[in-house]
Queue: 3 jobs
Job 1
Amino acid sequence: MMDPKNLFDTSLPGGMPAPIWFVELFKWLGFTLHEVPMNLWYAGIIVSMLLYVFGSEHGRQFGSRLMAQMPVIIALGINFGIVPLLFIQVGFGQVFYPATILMAWFWLSIIAMLVLAYYGVYLYAYGQAEQGPKMPRWKRAVGWVSALLFITIGFVFANAMSLMENVKAWPDLWQQHSFHGATLGTALNVADPRLWPRWLLMFGLALTTTAAWISFDSAWFAGRESDAYRTWTKGFAWKLYLVGAVWFAVAGAWYSFGTWPAETKQAMFLSPWAVLTVVTAAVPCAVLALLWFARQREGEISRGWASLIGLAQFGVLGVNAASRQVVQHLEFAPYFDISRQPTETQWTPLVIFLVAFVLGLGLIAWMIYQVGKVSGKTQTATT
Amino acid sequence: MHFPWWYVDQLTAPMLIAAISVIHVLVAHYAVGGGLFLAVETTYAYRTKNGDYLAYLKRHAKFFVLLTVAFGAITGAGIWWTIGLASPLATQVLIRTFVFAWATEYVFFLAEIVSAFVFYYYWGRLPEKIHAIIVWIYGISAWASLVIIAAITAFMLDPGNWRADHDFWSALLNRQALPQIISRTGGALLLSSLYVYLHAAITIKDAKLHALIESRSTRPALLGAVFIALGGILWYVFLPPSAQAALVAAPVLNVLMALLFVATGIVFVLLFLGPYRNPGWIKTPGFAASVLLFGIIGMSTAEFIREAVRKPYICYNVVLGSQMLTDEVAAIREKGFLESGTWTKAFVQANYPQVMSADGHVDRTRLLALPPSDRIKLGGMIFQYHCNDCHAIQKGYSPVAPLVQGWTPGMIRALVNDLDRTRFTMPPWAGTPEEAELLVSYLSDVSPARPAGMLPKDLKTGTP
């Protein structure tokens, strides 16, 4: 019987190039930012497809809007995904590399699926822009294929991230999928009971983000749509969020009560982490309440309220990412402790990065401001 | 060794890096050169109030965004994927050395994405001056990304003084950085012009507009050609001696160098014959496609050569192709390859407990007492972790079996024990004599017999 502890390399070169808190912070921030667009393609595309078939006129309208925005959303999501990917490798290479190498072909297939899904979305978006309701069926089918590909990508990601934490499974997976001691890269972590609720939990969360986006989009970008559409979005966003929140709650309960090891349960259900667990479970209710209040009000949702909903949903994702990070540490604990790694901080490059980061955000804010100015003018002219 | 090794039959895992990198490079260079092209030309078109040219540039921007923002970005992520899978140790070294260079490059990449979309989707809605500034933000950000990435990839060929001081700046400002920045900038300018020629040949019917695009695109193409030549010369001058020697000694590299010179020469000649002497030719999609094809061949070949001359290193003098640090080799040789590798040792522990000592170490003296079939199997594992980075087994990329076809165990033993002295492009043997015997058993097992019917007969054995 192979001891998984023997699979950890403790002789890796070099120290951490940044303080551990910095690596953790950017891993968390990057993942939270990535989650916003990722949630929109993960659940948003399939919701758009379903709305086209089963939805009302406004439902179809929303689906068309989201699919038209999707190429930009995907580009930003891929871009934001680089940050957590970078920092996970900085701090957690000892677990990240073995897990992904054990399932190498599946992990690599993400790239191929992403290319197909992205171009599928482009095809669909251009199809509806140029041909509208007359868009041929095969292009509609491409939209469905893209939606399924993104859900499959989510499954592979959930596999990789859960396999990182499921160190106990490494020896068997390696032995079963190896050739002369080298891995064939064909393992999947499907026997891990944590995989399925985790994957589903993420989908529930993605539904809530899509719902929050409906409100945000309606208030900020849907100036050219009818009043009736904008009023409809209030009700639909609330209903979709409710479905997502219930989904999230069921999957989350299954994940935490049903699959966490005893040590993780003990830590997450007792002080001090119990507070984080409770907040993670409860915080979607805050967004649900904001959407409910918006629904009760007369007329369209205001930009301020929609921004508050967006910000609150960002908080939901941030708290969820923080919880994930804590659970991750607890599950690594028997094998690997990031804080024991030596640190040799590269201060000058770190400061240069932070300056570039601030300047870059400023530049992006300026570009968005310019876009906002002309969009405002267009909307004023239209109304 | 430090990480599990991924066996990819015939191709070998690192060749996946090469495959994705080459595809990515062809789009990424266009993302830089095309961005600068759009910046210069949009500014020019606004200044000259050329509506037809602006309309063309908008069409080109759509093609540009569709190709670079989607395919370029995903294949860029694909390189991250493959290097982590096929070269995790080198990736760990690079990431821990350059995390803030990559993070800063990420900021430029983010600015690229946002400016590309604003530039394309808000065409005609933004004031001209602002629109031109946005595309310049794109062009400058894209070039800044190129500078940082070129410096990092240059480190893999020349770590500079980093081995001594482990300083970020020593790593980034290595001697190969400037040559590679110059040649990549040239490649970006030239390649983007070739993309423009083809795109214009397919989409434009108006002769006057075509002539304008041709003349405007030929200048950056020629400038790019000069940069490529200058960067290429500097690259060669600053190559480590082993890389210069590999260019001469390795038959594959000879062929690739010849292909590179021929393809680049053809591009230069076609540029001279086409846009310069016979402006009408480039209107023909076939001619434009031919020029682009030769440009792609040249650039792909250059990338392959850049990767290949590093052998036996992944990072020159830092990480070997055998997935170990150069500083570790002596200790591994002393301690044993199977014992030193995290995954090799775990495999031996689980599958061959009879060779483990009471205190949990691989007892080298027990290895040769294993039955022949087990010796071959363990030799196979050593081959995977020590050799499969560069050699497939029976068929595929530089397969080992044909390389030792007809060899006697003694000949193989001599090769294994003196790997790096036999070929300086191979890493040193990093195991004990007993482990060398296991590898010899494996290689003898996979090695085919000498082909029959060859004259003169083998003078030692008398067999044909």
Job 2
Amino acid sequence: MIKEEKINLKNSKVNKETLVRAFANLCTAKAMTFLYEENFKAVSKYVHATSRGHEVIQTAVGMQLKPQDYAFPYYRDDSMLLAIGMQPYDLMLQVLAKRDDPFSGGRTYYSHPSLKEDDKPKIPHQSSATGMQAIPATGVGLGFWYKEAEGLCNLDEKPVVVCSLGDASVTEGEIAEAFQMAALKQLPVLYLVQDNGWDISANAEETRAQNAFEYAKGFHGLEAISIDGTNFEESYQTIQKVIEIIRKERRPYLVHAKVPLLNHHTSGVRMEWYRDDLEEARTQDPYPKMQKLMEEYGYTKSEIQQIENECIAKVRSDFEKAIKAEDPKPEDLFTHDFAPTSITEEVGERSPKDAERVVMVDCALFAIEELMAKHKECLLYGQDVGGRLGGVFREAATLAQKFGDNRVFNTPIQEAFIVGSTVGMSAVGLKPIVEVQFADYIWPGLNQLFTEVSRSCYLSNGKWPVSMILRVPIGAYGSGGPYHSSSVESIVTNIRGLKIAYPSNGADLKGLLKAAYYDPNPVVIFEHKGLYWSKVPGTKGATSLEPSEDYVLPFGKAWVLQEIWKQEEVETLSIITYGMGVHWAMNASEELDMQDRIEIVDLRTLHPIDWETIYKSVKKCGKCLIVTEEPSENGFSRSIQGKIQEECFQYLDAPVMLVGSENMPAIPLNSTLEQTMIPSVKKVKRKILEVLNY
Amino acid sequence: MPHIEFKMPRLGESITEATIIKWNKAEGDTIEVDEILLEVATDKVDSEVPSTLSGTIVELLYEPNAVIEIGAPIAIIDSDGKPLEKKKTAPSSVGTELSRSAVETSQKTKKQAESVSATKKEKPQNITKAFQVNDNVFISPLVESIAKQHHISFEELARIPATGNEGRLRKSDVMHYIADGRPFKFAQPVSETNGFKIPDLQFDKGKGKIVEMDRMRQMIADHMVFSKHTSPHVTAYVEADLTEMVNWRNKVKVDFQKKYHEKLTFTPLFIECVAKAIKDYPMINSSLDGKNIIVKEAIHIGMATALPSGNLIVPVVRNADKKSLAELAITTNDLASKARDGKLSADETKGSTFTISNVGTFGSLMGTPIINQPEAAILATGIIKKRAEVIEKPEGDVIEIRSMMYLSLSFDHRIVDGYLAGSFLRRIADEMEQFDGNRAI
């Protein structure tokens, strides 16, 4: 199935015009490095790295990318950015963190591009954490694969995606997940690995058993080639050939390019302190090699000098201009945390007359089924969601049969890929719905959720919001034990840039899933396993008449599901809760026969959170209890408690209290221990009386 | 007429029993509503229990010192059919029901639910009209807002029967209290133990001129209140025969003026005597610092001086025991004139260790001065007045016209006892009486 074809360059020549453009690109990048060193004080206020030594391979790649292509350059790739058509002025606005920095508006470091211009390759946002871009980039490849398979791509010349990596980042575990998927699904990804032999001060000998070229050999279906990244003819022609293969054959390729690092690792360290190979590295400088090549192609020394002088002059005048550019204003901090969503009102029929009463898990299933039937961009993947099983909770049952194995498929056990690939999928216009099997297994995916997914919109200054849904089955019930029971909402609510829902019933889940789908931002939906089939006693309230197809429930609107009048001569209480807590609270108030004295507010979404409704309820009732399934300390609920006392202090007749799980490291397997650990109706009742009697 | 059981009333949250201290009525006595029937003790407070009925006492069921459960019958009253008029409602039983149900949650879900809903409808027991002051009242932000809105003082809040845990006042308590017509409105603080009540005095501003206190006046006021609060004052009195001193002064005052260009007043003469007495009784020259008494080495005498503004200032004669009479005269005259002109420096009014106030200047016979803190005592000298005195002589008693003066010493009883104060005061008088009439100037 996979063709192995040695690339034969046959010593062919490159086009003269190409060579001159490439030489000018190198001279420009080199002039920028020198200028930054010359103006170290002004420029190094903000940390930066330059491509000195790596210019030739980067130029060779950048010059050959087309507007339909996607690129994930990393932070040493300023030559690549110049080669795709960015001006020195553009890059300098970023090194000086100026307001008009075209990538991030002064929010992120030099050479951390994110670009969405019609005439240039697309550059989705990627974090500064080395190697972390491999999964989002491979996600773009997965997106191409999906669109081509489903007939959503009608380009004559198919796109490629370039993932640029330093060899030292290839040791990261997530690289393996990316390579695995690219090789498995035969994704059109070019992994460009620039190998300068150094981490910061640790060298190749200390940090790796093999280089990226050798490593790639372990991934069946990932072809690799190793080249001299300072030789322009070799670099340009190899990349040309590789891109051609990827465009036509739709398979991944790894190019390992050896280069010297001739500038500092970044402006934050000085190479003279620790580099023991500087002499040798300088003998590999691509600049004199390029001068020599120009001469071989018939250019005189003065012509060559003339080209370089023009580049230097351009760099200098751009710098003069960039220095004078406007800085961001304080108010610029507050834009683009989220892209605006069209879903702001509850629309459609929540409880249609002749609708069937269905369990919560089916509400989710029907929501996704309706979305997939309507939108080809919608696809679902995760562990065991494919046709054979349809999800360990049957939450995706029958979907693969209905929509095919391209749209609903199993992934390997790799949560980082499941989460992070959505950045790439979203960047090519798809709407991925993914899931981790249990909240307990969200941890390997958290890195991607935090570094790539949550910050993409903000750090790209609004250009690349990630539209995705991450479903997370959560919560304890029926002796799930320490690795199938945990609650994690405090961890996730601590990541800014995500929208987070935690519904307590099927109708809410369906309406919120629909809102999440149409939201251009990343959404995490916590779905309580104990509510999926209402198997936990007293959770029949989680079942719903199935809402109509057009039913949507906007985020940030809490539900006062038990509302009371303001009463002066009796003690009243507002319970603020979500998820399973809603059921505990409802049962507790019923068993105490206090439905007319206890108001219950179901938050429905944890971010955005509906403060207005919370404050209104607390001010009316005078007393407040927060109910959560998480351990009581240091959590999301504690922060709500604090905020309520800050905002409602003068209306409070007692401290805002909280009931949650015990503060132990895990939810034990044994049912007695489990019940002792987590809250219950009985525990909530006791706390209600404690607050009321305070 | 019905015989009605009088039960031990509710005395507060968490109080389950009380001890009878004494009966204020005997069997056969008649009693009116609100009349005190008995006194009881609990682990929190002692209280008087007023009757809620009027009639004749048929039987007292327990002797003093008996421990009785709340709600148990303690007396039988033959009611004349005028039970205490029922007030609308009081919240007290709600809280109890709730806390009880908290303990019993699991077993009796159904039953307890009934009890909670029942208490909501049933009007709870009346507020006992004899209120108790809740020493530990907790005023939540919400209760504070309600209080502000209804102009309820903290004193009043402290009397509202509180049904929250640990005696905390809850919103519903306050709202019930308001609905009940605020029975304790405008009441004044009262000492619990002796039942004495401050009358409900209202401050009538009248129509007089308003004089704003200047800074000095305020400081004097603060100082006086502080001194009275801090030191238990006791005042001792003696009289002294100043005839020799008065005669001598009359004899030398013109020469003195010529020699020193200073008037000779009684002030330096008194200071001289006081300084000598202090040397004999150094404990008078002291201050109290927490648990230590500091006996001062130097003797600096403060002389209370009236200012033209009506205020009072105390300039200080430093090291009075080491100054000659002439020096004392110069110093006192200087300080007095500076005081009148408002030219005293800060140093000149600081550091006195004992103070003299000459109330005789204003014609007063004697005074009970307030100690100039942090000193231990203060001397007031009265007017020098000629009186017929019986003088004991070897040849027999005779009546003579003598110049007499009363001296009073207020002392801080924490430091100084009557023996020391009396001896010291007598010594001053002796010094004055034994004045050498032939003394040179």
Job 3
Amino acid sequence: MIDRSTAPLPEKLTIFNLPEIKELELANGIKLFFVRKEKLPIVFTQVLLSAGSKFDPGMKKGVGYLTSLLIDEGAGEYDSLALNGEFEKLGSVSSVKSNHDSLSMTLLSMKENFDRSLELLSKIILSPWFDEKDFAREKKKVIDRILQLKDEPSFIASSAFDKQIFCDTFYSSPEIGYENSVRDISNGDIKNFYKNNITSTNAKLIVVGNLTENEVIDRFNKYLGEWKFSTRSNMVFEMPKRNSTKIYFVHKENSAQSEIRVGHISKKRNAEDYIPTRIMNTILGGQFSSRINLNLREQKGFTYGAGSSFQYYKEVGFFEVSTAVNIENTGAAIIEIIKELTGIRKNILPEEIDLAKSYLIKQFPSRFETYSQVAKNIEQLLVYDLSTGELKDYIQKIEAATQNEICSSALENIFPDELVVVAVGDRTKISGQLKSLNGKDAVELDLSGNILD
Amino acid sequence: MTKNLLKIDYEKYSLANGLQVILYPDQSFPLVAVNIWYRVGSANEKPGKTGFAHLFEHMMFQGSQNIPKEGHFRYIQEAGGNLNGSTSIDRTNYYETVPANYFELPLWLESDRMGFMLGGLTQEKLDNQKDVVMNERRQTYENQPYGLAWEKLFSNLFSPDHPYSWPTIGWMEDIAKFELDDVKNFFRTYYSPNNASLVVGGNFEVSRMKDKIEKYFGGISRSNSVPDLVAPGQNIFETKKIIMEDNVQLPRIYLAWHTEKAFSQNDAAIDILSDILTSGKNSRLQKLLVFEKQIVQDISSFQYSAKLAGSFIIVSTAKPGVEPETIKNEIENEIKKLIAGGITEDEMIRAKNSLKSSYIYSLQKLDLIVDHLNHYNFFLNEPDSFVFDLLRYENVTREQVIEAAKKYLLNAHVELNVIPKNSARQKK
């Protein structure tokens, strides 16, 4: 019989070499970040544009998002269907996504079809049609999607939370926009957004694939050499303030659960204490065996899962606890969450720190397994203006973080008295529970997160 | 070239206790992935006891003889790995991916629960996980728009005695009733080495891996033979139309036909049929209904083929003001048109090329590869079936796709309309 009572020890560490990121430049000055990865004959390309929804003009929320849907609806000599058919024939997967800060085009192709696939992608970038018919169809689709989102408790909870923590700044409204704002968008707005934002000045390129440096530069010079420059005035972001804790709810009739969000604004990604904060959050709610999940799920059975995270936009960060609980435990779950936020500020055990550090350090190589994962790491550097040293020094910085720094990061980044608390659930079942939390009636919000009178 | 890439170098053997082992060494990245399939799923349950295979999967993470509650998560987290499990109608799987130097850890964890799970069992753990799973059911199905449509659809497509007629998560009233004895009996019946297959892939030395697998799993005793699953014969089936109200803004229509089980004669042809009908903007139904007529918000379809049976499903969300009936008529017309008018070579090329490259793209991730090896082993008894599988699709002809459509999509079916609450009453 073998001794099963203790865990087997690890063997000698298998060497992992961080992929080398080459910073190249096209003839017209566009920066290109290249990683040669040879395992498979495939190429992953990302065109990262500083052209997210925060550049939506004035009250026309949703222009950037709608542009991301329309830009590949016909380009060059191909109409919408023909263009899509060309990619399918190559077995290439092209997609366009947008968020608050960026608009991203990605392309996954076989090496043998890379040249032609990139040629097609360049048509999308340089000569999109923005045809009236496509515009009308996609706009209607967005308006109907906004209608559908009224059914989704997790979307309602997150957008109500965003609205309250970001106040009137451009991160407060959903990228997709609102029904009224989208109705006001014209095809001219889309063309203007394209002209002002989808320019080489705002673009950075990421390529991960089985190619040589020269092959990459040649192809991109060939297809994107003519891409126009532009000037654009800078966006002004006024950091919103945290206020004393306030409890909100959105009524959802007969809901089987409450969707809960708890949190507040926090520091930017490039803050000094990013690493200790990350370690601290791993302990608090960033893992299955974190305090919040073990409490709410494994001890209380309130939920299928609960967690916390620090998330970052370019101009600001925010801290968010997110869970869905059975409706009877809405109040009790919020009490437990706040208890954990208070608790992490008081005490963090050395063995918790060891576990979190061990996870973050040893998990690091697996962040570079697939082609798109490698690109994702580079994207993060570019979005937050970080150097490649951020990846090279990552493990060392985690190792170096002291217990003192990690405990301080809780004090300086988690504010249990300055929370926005949002619950989405049936009013008749949750309002009493919410009132018992602080003796006040919770503030009711509509489905878009606005305060109801 | 594609076929060379898809040729997987592996070794398959069995331990004396019947555990199937499949090793796939691949030194390209410093990870090791462990993936176990137990040949038991929700289809092995009985009416009144539904959802148990899945609840049991949760209990497997509650510790065993030598592993404390949450121990699996804690150990794997400390190693910088990730882990999970999943339950389907046919099988339950458990998997870990860890840095290569930790390869022994998942073997220890998995073998302790395969052999000695009952040693860690308590009433408190069971009560806790029943609460968790009931909340999983609420979160994933009951509190989601259209979330209860699938169980409604399948409980009408299959007769009540067919094991595919109930949802894998189980009925709420069944989940609430489970007791410790259910856990013990289920473990003894299904969780034995002779009812499982273990795949290990990644950066390791084969002979050492074999020694360690023997060390941890070799001493676990086999169980009596595992009861076979028998599907009841197909009853006479008539077209049914079901209308269900839900908290939704837009109506959605579901159409479901009986087809064939996984890897049977027409399985691949029906997959291609599905692509031609709804995959991508150029597919027939997307082009007609989303692009041209603009009467649906979305439309999709798939061949859902499993061990005992298969079904073909089309799902479409209506635009505001459009009746499900209108969409159904359009779909039926298009199917008839496809059967009568044939399929173009262009349509076949688009479908096949997308499939072919998706096989290559899937080789990027070790945990996907090892799960595939288990999948092929489960259905075909041959883990290295990537090339065989791709050829199944490459060899499908236009005529076969049309034959498959003719054979199945003109038959009796289930139609489910999910409509906004109160809308039926308002109309009257």
